[in-house]
């Protein structure tokens, strides 16, 4: 097995464990965080702040490197245009997260705990992706 595969597996495992420990895989916890008018539970602010700090740190470190450790070049986004697809996709992502309390990463991590809701969410996600793919090919 290549080193990059081991590194990817380790990063995915750490990410999943962080989501589990931070209770991001519990839809009730996420929905309580998003419910600003009800009994708002701000605990996930710390999870989000930790994720932001880790990402910011990684970007800052990358500025001093000529190339990443396990690839030939850095893979930063090249598109900086805010278009209709980005706006609609962002709105659908937020709507889905707010309605069911899952987004793709936590739903996959929830599978590790035997949470059937994560499986249902991922099935719906795959159906939605297939529908969009089919719709976009017709356009």
Give structural notes.
- This protein is mainly alpha-helical and 139 residues long.
- The chain has one domain.
- It has six helices and no strands.
- The radius of gyration is 18 Å and the shape is globular.
- The N and C termini lie far apart (41 Å).
- Pfam families: DUF6691.
- The chain crosses the membrane at residues 42-65, 86-112, 118-135.
Quick structural gist:
It is built from 6 helices and no strands. The protein has helices at 3-21, 27-34, 44-62, 84-100, 104-111, 116-138.
In terms of per-residue confidence, which ranges show pLDDT below 50 for 5 or more consecutive residues? none
Whole-number count of domains:
1
* Shape by Cα distribution: globular
The value of Rg in angstroms is 18 Å
Helix content: 55-70%
- Share of residues in strands: under 5%
Please give the number of β-strands.
0
Given the structure, what is the number of helices? 6
N/C terminus separation: 41 Å
Average pLDDT, rounded to a whole number, is: 89
**Helix-strand category:** mainly alpha
List SSEs in N-to-C order. Answer: HHHHHH
The main pleated sheet reads as: none
Descriptive key words:
single chain, 139 residues, mainly alpha, 68% helix
Task: Draw up the topology in text.
Elements: H1 3-21, H2 27-34, H3 44-62, H4 84-100, H5 104-111, H6 116-138
Helix pairs in contact: 1-5, 2-4, 5-6
